[in-house]
Amino acid sequence: MVLMTMIGRVADGLPLAASVHNDLRDESGRNSNEYQNQAKNILRRINSSSPSKASIETDPYVFHCLIDHDVCYITLCEKIFPRKNAYAYLEDLAQEFIAQYGQKIQLAARPYSFIEFDNYIQKMKKQYADTRTSREAMGRLRTDLRDVQNIMVTNIQDVMSRGETLQDLNRKATNLASMSQQYRKDANYLNRMSSLTKIGLTVGSIVILSLIAYVFIF
């Protein structure tokens, strides 16, 4: 389920539009205002070099972020809400937002200049609450968004407490992935060498036994 949505300008983190579930409150007592502040912090920590897609966990929910045409689209969802559906939802918002305000985005001077876009957000939230509609939307999902398994996933504490940008976090995730890939390559190489060694020992043993048998027989 989509719980909250915020749209902001990448250049300066200015919120342009938002839609909030007013009854939002988790078991720890955090309410919609706290999650809005988290979303604003995410906006302040993105830049033109940030990954175009990222998921940020904030138990018991998760933020999904999409950057398109220098605009960042953020939605807060329940963790059980499929990630593909979340990005399909953001993609729909991005297409409509650019269609309506593309020429005005860089001219906006005050927060929530396009707050009337909430009407469209509410419409999309209802559609994506309908399983059948969300499946249809998946068919329209852009090719580069279909593989959501490779989307960077981090934790809200990494974004807020340490003040790291999504670019920094993405670079660390990429480095870890590279190290993991190299580890797998090294492990495969060692396995191959071990197999070759075993084969060599087996062949050597057969040759030696054959020579011994030859000596005794002939």
Automatic annotation (TrEMBL):
Gene Ontology MF term list: SNAP receptor activity
Domain Longin as annotated: residue spans: 6-121
Domain V-SNARE coiled-coil homology: 137-197
InterPro entries given in the database record: Longin-like_dom_sf (IPR011012), Longin_dom (IPR010908), Sec22 (IPR044565), Synaptobrevin-like (IPR001388), V_SNARE_CC (IPR042855)
Family of this protein: Belongs to the synaptobrevin family.
Single GO cellular component term: endoplasmic reticulum membrane
Matching PROSITE patterns: LONGIN (PS50859), V_SNARE (PS50892)
Origin species: Rotaria sordida
Matches recorded under PANTHER family: VESICLE-TRAFFICKING PROTEIN SEC22B
Role, per record: SNARE involved in targeting and fusion of ER-derived transport vesicles with the Golgi complex as well as Golgi-derived retrograde transport vesicles with the ER.
Official protein name in the record: Vesicle-trafficking protein SEC22b
Superkingdom classification of source: Eukaryota
